[in-house]
Backbone:
C-alpha cells in the first residue's frame, strides 16, 4: 500500500486567501496509562513568499531535500526516522511545545488536557518567535482531528486525518511524539520496573503485568483503567 505523503497544499490555499501564517498542531499521548500528553505547533519558515510566487510546482522546487518525505504522520515512521527528522523540522519550522502532566489529565480528563496542551504549544510558539512572526494573530490553526480547540480566539479549522495530508500538522505530530518519548525515557530511568523506555506508557501486556505486580507509580493516570480497579483491590 502506498504511503500518503503530506503536502503543503492546504497551506498554499489558505495563504492565498490572505492569512499571514498557517499553523499546524497535533498531540501525542492521549492513549497511554502513564505520563503527560504533549502537543506541538508548527509554522513553516520562509513559506509564504515561496509558495505564492513559484510558477511551477512549489513542492518540487522547495522540497528537493528527500528528508521532507519524512515529514509525515509520525505513526508511519520508525523511532529512528522520527529522531532523524526532529532536528530537520526545527530547522525548517517555527515550533512550539506544550504539555499537561498526569495530574492535570486526571483533573480535567484527557480530551480537555489535549486541548490545553495545544493552547500551550500555540502560546509557546508565539512567545518564542514574536519578532519573526509579527502578524501572528492573522494566522489560521489547522487542528488534527474533528474538533477545534475550545476557547481560543484565533481562526481554526479541524482537519480529519490532518497528520497524513497537511505538512505543518505532520511536522507537529513528529515533534510532539519525539518530545513525549524523550520524557518517557527519563521516566524509565526513574521507574525502571515498568519498562517505560519500550512501551512509553501504553497498555502493553508487559506494562499490565508490572502494574499488577507493583501497582501504579507516581506518573500513572489514576482515572485510567486499570488504576481504579487496582485501587479497589488494595482496599479489600
Residues:
Amino acid at each position: 500500500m502506498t504511503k500518503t505523503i503530506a503536502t503543503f497544499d492546504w497551506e498554499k490555499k489558505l495563504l492565498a486567501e490572505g492569512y499571514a501564517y498557517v499553523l499546524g498542531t497535533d498531540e501525542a499521548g492521549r492513549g497511554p496509562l502513564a505520563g503527560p500528553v504533549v502537543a506541538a505547533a508548527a509554522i513553516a519558515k520562509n513559506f509564504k513568499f515561496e509558495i505564492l510566487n513559484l510558477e511551477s510546482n512549489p513542492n518540487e522546487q522547495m522540497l528537493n531535500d528527500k528528508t521532507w518525505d519524512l515529514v509525515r504522520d509520525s505513526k508511519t515512521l520508525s523511532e529512528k526516522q522520527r529522531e532523524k527528522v526532529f532536528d530537520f523540522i526545527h530547522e525548517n519550522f517555527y515550533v512550539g511545545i506544550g504539555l499537561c502532566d498526569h495530574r492535570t489529565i486526571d483533573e480535567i480528563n484527557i480530551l480537555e488536557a489535549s486541548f490545553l496542551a495545544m493552547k500551550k504549544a500555540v502560546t509557546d510558539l508565539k512567545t518564542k518567535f514574536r519578532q519573526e512572526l509579527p502578524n501572528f494573530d492573522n494566522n489560521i490553526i489547522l487542528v488534527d482531528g474533528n474538533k477545534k480547540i475550545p476557547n481560543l480566539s484565533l481562526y481554526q479549522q479541524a482537519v480529519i486525518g490532518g497528520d497524513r495530508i497537511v505538512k505543518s500538522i505532520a511536522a507537529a505530530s513528529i515533534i510532539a511524539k519525539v518530545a513525549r518519548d524523550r520524557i518517557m525515557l527519563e521516566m524509565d530511568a526513574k521507574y525502571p520496573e515498568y519498562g517505560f523506555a519500550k512501551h512509553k506508557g501504553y497498555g502493553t501486556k508487559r506494562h499490565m503485568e508490572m502494574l499488577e505486580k507493583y501497582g501504579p507509580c507516581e506518573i500513572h493516570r489514576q482515572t485510567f483503567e486499570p488504576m481504579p480497579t487496582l485501587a479497589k483491590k488494595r482496599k479489600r
About this structure: The radius of gyration is 19 Å. The mean pLDDT is 91.
